[in-house]
């Protein structure tokens, strides 16, 4: 785990989504929060990523995600036996992994009680153990670690750590260099672009997830915020930092500085923290997500652990170019929670963000209308609604381990 230094080790009250307390914008409207547009975007995302899925099955997949997370919360209470889960939208089956048969039996029973079709299997390693093993490869100095160059992930379905290598790299490994708990996968051949812009027009006036933010020589999108010992932080992608102390603003209004130590762009973490020194912005305690124009909706929570994020989950993104002309945000489907081919970042498909969307908030809209922060958009293959529609985000648990929320 890598933490942004000024947040690491602190007792942090986290407020999901960027915030605003500037009196001039007090009248900004709260969107009529039916969630209808995002629900339709979620269904579209499933139908885009899985072309053969029926509309009814896509609706069930989108609306059942909250129930699947209820099952996750039950199983995650015993992390020593929980190996994670994933969802197959085509079959409608929820797959969970446990390290004991007794645990698998209890998981299947719990899933049935929730009305889910569950397949529970026994695996060798818990999800926490897989993450620890992945970190040993990322930090290692042996032949495998050197060749991996940080291209390390976790695959729940195979219960292994995945390492992405080219055919030539794999062939160069000496015999016995690959542990039994590692699966070698092909290195990506996609041309992945970091979604940074250098000259983009401002699109709004107040802090909330999805707005354009600027520094000298660059611009990105605003994501979520945190509060530590009375200091407020606004998050964006780490690769937006610029390598020196940079001062950030939105629509000409200062936000505050980002120091190089608070910009991480390494392995599965692409996150940067801007210290919010504008007194108006710093005083606010309510998290917001931009929906359209000046409208916003609140955020109610976040993914606290990597095992909370499943393959088959639908996520939406609020960033500068995310559906600017509509009342909802576009959505995609998680297809790799820890994609070794792209540094262990979380991959989602069905929507391709644009340059300038980096740092935007990636979140989940529950069927009960709550929004949970999942991460910060990092990069994509094509760069702006082209095919293949693949993108990656930096998951919040990677750089906010063990922190709690203050949602007052």
Structure commentary:
The protein has helices at 36-49, 55-63, 65-75, 101-113, 127-138, 143-148, 167-171, 279-282, 396-399; strands spanning 12-15, 82-88, 93-98, 117-122, 152-155, 160-165, 182-186, 193-194, 212-215, 218-221, 225-228, 231-236, 246-250, 253-258, 263-266, 269-275, 288-290, 296-298, 301-302, 314-318, 331-339, 345-349, 361-365, 371-380, 390-395, 404-405. With 408 residues, it is an alpha+beta fold. Mean pLDDT is 84; it is low at 6-27, 195-205 and 402-408.
Overall pLDDT score: 84
Overall CATH architecture of the domain at 211-405:
Beta Barrel
Silhouette: globular
- The count of β-strands is 26
Proportion of β residues? 25-35%
CATH homologous superfamily caption of the domain at 211-405? Trypsin-like serine proteases
GO biological process, one term: proteolysis
InterPro entries: Peptidase_S1_PA (IPR009003), Peptidase_S1_PA_chymotrypsin (IPR043504), TRYPSIN_HIS (IPR018114)
GO molecular function: serine-type endopeptidase activity
Protein name: Streptogrisin C
Descriptors:
408 residues; six-stranded antiparallel barrel; alpha+beta; 9 helices; Thrombin, subunit H; Peptidase_S1_PA; disordered C terminus; six-stranded mixed β-sheet
């Amino acid at each position: 785990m890598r933490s942004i230094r000024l947040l690491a080790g602190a007792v942090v009250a986290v407020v999901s989504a960027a915030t605003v307390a500037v009196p001039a914008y007090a009248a900004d409207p709260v969107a009529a929060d039916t969630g209808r547009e995002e629900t339709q975007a979620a269904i579209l995302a499933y139908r885009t990523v899985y072309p053969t899925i029926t509309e009814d099955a896509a609706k069930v997949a989108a609306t059942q995600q909250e129930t699947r997370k209820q099952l996750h919360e039950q199983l995650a209470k015993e992390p020593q036996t929980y190996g994670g889960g994933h969802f197959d939208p085509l079959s409608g089956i929820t797959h969970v992994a446990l390290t004991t048969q007794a645990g698998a039996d209890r998981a299947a029973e719990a899933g049935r009680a929730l009305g889910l079709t569950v397949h529970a299997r026994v695996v060798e390693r818990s999800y926490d153990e897989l993450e620890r093993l992945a970190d040993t490869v990322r930090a290692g100095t042996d032949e495998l670690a050197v060749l991996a160059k940080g291209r390390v992930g976790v695959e729940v379905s195979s219960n292994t750590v995945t390492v992405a290598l080219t055919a030539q790299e794999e062939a160069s490994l000496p015999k016995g260099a690959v542990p039994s708990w590692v699966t070698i996968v092909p290195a990506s051949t996609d041309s992945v672009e970091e979604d940074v812009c250098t000259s983009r027009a401002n699109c709004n006036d107040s802090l909330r997830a999805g707005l354009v933010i600027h520094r000298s020589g660059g611009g990105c999108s605003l994501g979520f915020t945190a509060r530590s010992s009375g200091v407020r932080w606004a998050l964006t992608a780490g690769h937006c930092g610029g390598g020196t102390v940079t001062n950030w603003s939105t629509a000409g209004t200062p936000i505050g500085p980002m120091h190089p130590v608070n910009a991480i762009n390494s392995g599965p973490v692409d996150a940067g923290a801007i210290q919010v020194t504008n007194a108006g912005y710093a005083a606010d305690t309510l998290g917001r997500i931009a929906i359209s124009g000046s409208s916003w909706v609140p955020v109610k929570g976040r993914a606290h652990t990597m095992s909370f994020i499943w393959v088959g989950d639908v996520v939406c993104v609020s960033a500068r170019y995310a559906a600017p002309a509509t009342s909802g945000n576009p959505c995609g489907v998680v297809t790799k929670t820890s994609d070794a081919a792209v540094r262990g970042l979380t991959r989602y498909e069905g929507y391709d963000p644009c340059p300038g969307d980096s740092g935007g908030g990636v979140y989940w809209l529950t069927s009960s209308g709550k929004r949970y922060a999942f991460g910060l958009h990092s990069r994509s293959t094509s760069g702006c609604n082209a095919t293949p529609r693949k993108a990656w985000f930096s998951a919040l648990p990677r750089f906010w381990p063990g922190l709690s929320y203050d949602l007052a």
